[in-house]
Amino acid sequence: MPLSGMSQYRCGSDRRRIKGAACGDIASAGAAVGLALGTPARRRYTQPMERVIGGAELPQHLRGGVAALGNFDGFHAGHQAVVGRARDRARAAGVPSLVVSFDPHPARLFRADAAPFALTRIDQRLDLLEAFGVDAAVMVPFDRALAALSGPEFVAEWLVRRLGLSGVVTGDDFTFGRARSGTVAELASLGEAHGFRAEVVAPVADGFGTISSTRIRALLQSANPGAATELLTRPFTIRAEVEPGAQLGRQLGFPTANQRLGDYLRPAYGVYAVMARLPDGSRVKGVANLGIRPMLTPPVELLETWLLDWSGDLYGQTLDIELIAYIRPELALPDLDALTAQVMADAEQARRILSPPP
């Protein structure tokens, strides 16, 4: 089957004007390849971010800070507005800036059989927060005991006793406490009682509506990674360890780095133009098949990336694969010769997409 040209690569033409966020915090909405791929909009200039995980005690020097509260899966433009406001308030007051999030995602605790939906791994999210200029990130263990706390109990135990916050910032849809009963209005009232100020950041919108993780997931599942890039302010990136495969690609002249998708949302199956970030920090163009490999038996779900103009051994190492553009769906071709010809054509298509305009 011939390639379908660029009909699915809509990032450059499907531009979105982002409203409700500071210009310094949100990357401009340009073509995916023109972005600083995988890089949040603002760079750190202070000490490395401290990571408080597993219920560890907050160090004394981080108490009294201003915290952004939320899950922040994907850390998209709307999340950046919330975290950016907390960071800027903290800097103005001369206190630590924190992000307080939850691991696992509450939805995973209550719907353990739900399909994978993550836009970022926890380590990715922490890396993004560090690059954004946050002093510390606190990952609160979300378990049944935490879920059973009432709203006032959660505030007293976590925000006051454990974290000693002087201020909190949330989105307008933030809920907390047993059965998600606590609202942002209740949080503001509880903050007054406990001596901290709660603030709500309005949703960030573009010409198509509010920017949300739900919208981004829908774009990825409809084979539109370019539009998802604009809402995320960077490409959707899968981070995983490279595993040994069947070696078929190597035998046919296009060796691939094979990675499992884990808890990530499943984007549309098919072939993508991608950028790979290697363990040494270098970036390499690639073409990747994401799916179940319909020509092979038994079907195995993998992300298989051919790194163009590169060779080396990556087994056991962790790669970041950025989905830049969707080229075509998976195909069951008649034989290996047809497969080889199609992959070579896909590679040329990926090179054209990933090469910056003159």
Task: Walk me through the structure.
There is one protein chain. The protein is of the alpha/beta class and 358 residues long. 28% of the residues lie in helices and 21% in strands. The chain has two domains: 32-206, HUPs (Rossmann fold, 3-Layer(aba) Sandwich); 236-354, Riboflavin kinase-like (Elongation Factor Tu (Ef-tu), domain 3, Beta Barrel). Helix 7 packs antiparallel against helix 8.
Name the CATH superfamily classification of the largest domain. HUPs
Mean pLDDT: 86
**Which regions have little confidence, pLDDT < 50, spanning 5+ residues?**
1-45
Provide the domain count.
Answer: 2
Shape designation: elongated
The counted number of beta strands is: 14
Order of helices and strands: EEHEHHEHHEHEEEHHEHEEEEEH
Rg, alpha carbons:
22 Å
- Largest sheet, order of strands side by side? 1-4-3-2-5-6
In DSSP terms, counting alpha (H) and pi (I) runs of 4 or more, how many helices?
A: 10
- Major sheet attributes: 6 strands, parallel
Return the CATH topology of the largest domain. Rossmann fold
Proportion of residues in helical segments = 25-40%
CATH class of the largest domain: Alpha Beta
Distance between the termini: 30 Å
CATH architecture classification name of the largest domain: 3-Layer(aba) Sandwich
Tell me the strand percentage band. 15-25%
Oligomer category? single chain
Strand and helix map with partners:
Blueprint: E1 50-52, E2 66-69, H1 77-93, E3 97-103, H2 106-110, H3 122-132, E4 136-141, H4 144-147, H5 151-162, E5 167-171, H6 184-194, E6 197-201, E7 205-206, E8 209-210, H7 213-221, H8 225-232, E9 237-241, H9 248-252, E10 257-259, E11 270-277, E12 283-291, E13 302-307, E14 318-328, H10 336-354
Parallel strand pairs: 1-4, 2-3, 2-5, 3-4, 5-6
Antiparallel strand pairs: 7-8, 9-14, 10-13, 11-12, 11-14, 12-13
Helix pairs in contact: 5-6, 7-8
